Automatic annotation (TrEMBL):
The keyword Ribosomal protein does not apply. Coiled coil: none annotated. The keyword Transcription regulation does not apply. Belongs to the DEAD box helicase family. GO terms for molecular function: ATP binding; hydrolase activity; RNA binding; RNA helicase activity. It comes from Staphylotrichum longicolle. This is ATP-dependent RNA helicase. The lineage of its organism: Eukaryota, Fungi, Dikarya, Ascomycota, Pezizomycotina. RNA helicase. The Q motif is unique to and characteristic of the DEAD box family of RNA helicases and controls ATP binding and hydrolysis.
Length: 258
């Protein structure tokens, strides 16, 4: 078991050794929270995972309740599925037909969710996991990382479209800021910042702040933001202040685990 600390914008901080009592902790039980069977099956039958990790339990329950989440979580704790489940569910909820389509059809200028990760390798891993989760649905995933494949990526995105974009800060900023790419997110409903401390360490603060300018404002389009970081130095807290909804968030910290 592990000890978790919560802080919510609605309640005082509290700690608990048994935080899971009223929370869904098994993937198979996620339909109780409204998660589509296709998503659940991709995990329980495709990946063959049964129980959620702590960060998955906390993120999925909070995010499906509509909250922004700030989570302190180390590498290897299962963050990828923690954010993919609520994000993909949110895309499907916005557009229920997507769950019943076998093949995706999207536009490049109607991106519904963006996941930002510090390195090319991490972004590509998330992209692969997202593809698995979205298989059998109409949700189209594209991966945008730095390097030589920009034109192939652009061709693919124009041709196939994109609901869920995964990428590095530099490349995502590059694509959103260049009007000739045809890539845009005027109805973006979800944003994930993965490994925020690493993104700041590598010097991506400016790109992250710039990306915000190309997204619709939260007043115009409700947006859910999930931020993960292994450590919480001041610069990460500052980033969270810029991205997270101060009136509707939960903070989760794994204090101890075995
Ligand atoms: P992180 O992003 O926190 O470093 P990952 O999402 O990459 O962690 O997951 C780490 C490993 O754990 C991966 O191999 C993943 O497939 C596996 N994994 C994720 N969630 C579960 C789970 N609920 N049960 C078993 N294994 C899991
Ligand atoms: Mg990860």
């Amino acid at each position: 078991t592990s000890l978790l600390r919560f802080y919510s914008s609605e309640s005082a901080a509290h700690e608990s050794a048994a935080p899971h009592q009223e929370l869904v902790t098994r993937f198979a039980d996620l339909p109780q929270l409204g998660v589509h069977e296709r998503i659940v099956n991709a995990i329980t039958k495709g990946m063959k995972y049964e129980n959620m990790t702590d960060v998955q339990t906390m993120t999925v329950n909070s995010a499906l309740a509509g909250k922004d989440v700030v989570a302190q979580a180390k590498t290897g704790t299962g963050k990828t599925l923690a954010f993919l489940v609520p994000i993909v569910q949110r895309i499907i909820a916005q557009d229920p037909e997507l769950a019943d389509r076998r093949r995706g059809k999207a536009r490049a200028d109607d991106i519904r969710a963006i996941i930002i990760s510090p390195t090319r390798e991490l972004a590509e891993q998330i992209g692969v996991e997202a593809q698995k989760l979205c298989q059998g649905t109409g949700v189209v995933v594209q991966t945008a990382v730095g390097g030589t494949q920009k034109h192939a990526m652009l061709r693919r995105t124009r041709f196939e479209g994109c609901h869920l974009m995964v990428g590095t800060p530099g490349r995502i900023h590059d694509l959103l800021s260049d009007p000739t790419t045809g890539i845009d997110a005027p109805r973006l409903g979800a944003l994930v910042l993965d490994e925020a401390d690493r993104m700041l360490d590598v010097g991506f603060k400016a790109e992250l702040e710039q990306i915000l300018k190309y997204l619709p404002s939260r007043e115009d389009v409700p947006r859910q933001t999930l931020l993960y970081s292994a450590t919480l130095p001041k610069n990460v807290v500052g980033l969270a202040r810029q991205f997270i909804d101060p009136r509707n968030f939960e903070f989760v910290q794994t204090i101890k685990s075995d």
